Every structure is written in C-alpha cells, then in structure tokens.
From TrEMBL:
Its EC number is 1.2.1.38. The lineage of its organism: Bacteria, Pseudomonadati, Pseudomonadota, Gammaproteobacteria, Moraxellales. GO terms for molecular function: N-acetyl-gamma-glutamyl-phosphate reductase activity; NAD binding; NADP+ binding. It comes from Fluviicoccus keumensis. The gene is argC. PROSITE patterns: ARGC. This is N-acetyl-gamma-glutamyl-phosphate reductase. Residues 3-141 form the Semialdehyde dehydrogenase NAD-binding domain.
Amino acid sequence: MIKVGIVGGTGYTGVELLRLLAQHPNVELTAITSRSESGMPVAKMFPNLRGRVNLAFSEPSLETLGACDVVFFATPHGVAMKQTPELLARGVKVIDLGADFRLKDLAQFEKWYGMPHSCPEILEEAVYGLPEVNREAIRSARVIGNPGCYPTAVQLGLMPLLKAGLIDVDHLVADAKSGVSGAGRKAEVHTLYSEAGESFRAYGVAGHRHLPEITQGLNGMTGGNVGLTFVPHLLPMIRGIHATLYGRLTKEPGDLQALYEQTYAGEPFVDVMPAGSLPETRSVKGANTCRIAVYRPQGGDTVVVLSVIDNLVKGAAGQAIQNMNLMFGLAEDAGLGQIALLP
Ligand SMILES: NC(=O)C1=CN([C@@H]2O[C@H](COP(=O)(O)OP(=O)(O)OC[C@H]3O[C@@H](n4cnc5c(N)ncnc54)[C@H](OP(=O)(O)O)[C@@H]3O)[C@@H](O)[C@H]2O)C=CC1
Ligand SMILES: CC(=O)N[C@@H](CCC(=O)OP(=O)(O)O)C(=O)O
C-alpha cells in the first residue's frame, strides 16, 4: 500500500482527493493536514467521508509527512516549494496541485505569482503532470507540477490541431467558463451565492496566471511561440469547466473527427464525442474525464473545439491521482473509475 499524505485537507481539492483516495485500492491515507482544524475528525467536517476516512486533521509537520511515500499539496501557491526539498531528502515524492512547479521560466513564475521561487533546482527537475502529453516523464518523476484546471481543458482541446500543424498558431482563442468551486473554499465576496448566483461575467481579461501556463504547454506542442487570447468566466454553478476554443485553418484539414479520435485512441480519460455532439459539464461531474467535440462550422476556415472537465477532478485531484498511479507503476486508472453524476 502506498502511504499518502495530503497538505490542505480542508480545501475543495483536498476533500476531493480524500473522496477519490478513500476508494483507491492501493492507498493508505496516512496524514491529512490542516493548520486551522488540527485535531478535528475529518468526517466531522466532511460527512460524505463518514465510515470511509477515520483520521483527524493534523498539523503539517515534517515528521508526519516525512513518513509518507507521496504527499499531495492541495494548498495555495508558494506552500509546496517551501517543504518539497526536505520531503525529497526523506525519499517522499511530491505532487503539487498549486502552481509552484508548473512554470519552467522563473521570471514568468515570479511575475504571475508575485513571489520568488525558493527551490529553482527542483523546479527544473519537476515534471508538468499532464499525462496525455508527458506520460513517460511522469513515470520517473519525483516532483509533479499538477496542471491548473483551465490549462487542462484548453491544452487537451487544442493538442490534436497543433500537433497536426493545421491552424494559425498566432491567433488562438480560448473562451473558458468555470464553476465557483474553482476559486476554492476560502471565503471571498465574489463567490458568495448572492454575488455569483444568477449572474455571469468574465474576469482576468487583461491577464490571468493560467495564460503563461497554457502557452508554455502549447509552445511545447508546436515548437514555437503561440499567440493566445484567453478569457476566463465565472459561471453560477459549483463544478465544471467548459472551454470553447477557436483556431483558423491554414490548410485543408482532412477529417477532423478522425484526427481527434486517433489522437486520443487509448487515452483512458479523454473522450472524443461523436460528430455533432455538445459536451456538457454535467457529463463529467465527479469523473476524471475530459470530453471533447470538434466542429468546422459551415465548412469554413474556423475550427471550434468544445472541451469540458470537472475542475476538481481532471482539473485537479483526479489528475493528481492519475499522476500518482503513473509514478508508482500502478494501473493508470486505479481508483478513478467514477462515472459522472447525472442529472
Ligand atoms: N479549486 C480548483 O478547482 C482548483 C484548485 N487548484 C489549486 O489547488 C490548490 C488548492 O486549491 P483549493 O482546494 O481550491 O483551495 P482552498 O482554499 O479550498 O484550500 C486551501 C487549503 O490549504 C490549506 N493551507 C492554506 N495555507 C496553508 C499553508 N501555508 N500551509 C499549509 N496549508 C495551508 C488550508 O487549510 P488550513 O488553512 O486549515 O491549513 C486549506 O485546506 C491551489 O493552489 C489552487 O490554485 C488547482 C486546480 C483546480
Ligand atoms: C473560478 C476561479 O476562480 N478559478 C480559479 C482557477 C482555478 C485554480 O485554482 O487554478 P490554479 O491552481 O492555477 O490557481 C481562478 O481563476 O483563479
């Protein structure tokens, strides 16, 4: 059994890790930390875990975490990089759900996250945990920068077109919408029910920290520098991301449906839907699945891709477990068989 620790167990990605790991056949939950709720039984805060998780929250101490085989950081940016060097020295692998190990360019990290990086040498060895792109490197990684939620939906949606060299890489557009759980569990005015409910708006239009993460990934697919306009929106729902992606064709693309199906053939967590389908966020709610549909409206020169994920699963905790499975040589889908909750 793999001994697992979770730092940040009281947040939304933390409790999602717990929900999924409690059903994982190869995992023993060893430590679940919270600074604010240390001593409280986990199932008291999260009754969905009653009878399934019998631990109490503990302080995030090196002693407890150092006894694990792998530690997930479900914490704000800047926390994982402080503790990762000591954990690695004790032979513990690290999967950060925050952004400390995602951006390879230090200047970009410091610009978008407003803090210096405390372990650049570990950032260099860390692997970006998008299995559909980096599967082999993930298998041997000690540190994973788990992708952001929007970057997962956008990169998986655009990858087939970019790898095939079919679209103008200077003018990509990603119009993406997220449910409010994407903002985490901490109290903030803009995610209050009476602020976010029955309303809809964009945010981060002039610049969002996921822009450099997405372009880093897309650059890796094209070998050059892509130009991307990325506009996130806040939807009055709890879970889910819907990304609508636009690319202008630079040549006759052939059968786009076949291109998508072939690219993702054999991928356990990417579902290319039949031509004419409209992926819904509810079709992935609670599941580690990205569902994609590709369109060429009126046979014109614009390709439209629809990509949906659950921000807390394929956009965070599920993908992190997929990465853990790869790092420990387990079946990639172990513990990740959940079917989406519908309606
Ligand atoms: N929500 C989402 O959809 C997604 C989130 N992410 C990323 O995952 C990470 C966690 O997000 P989310 O679960 O939404 O956040 P939350 O705000 O819901 O939870 C954050 C957790 O971190 C703990 N924490 C905060 N500061 C520290 C610290 N200095 N040391 C140790 N623990 C700390 C908190 O517990 P306590 O204060 O009790 O210790 C809390 O449990 C973030 O980096 C986020 O950007 C990534 C993809 C999607
Ligand atoms: C709706 C909402 O607020 N979503 C978050 C993104 C989700 C997330 O937490 O991603 P990171 O891990 O990269 O921070 C945001 O736009 O800041």
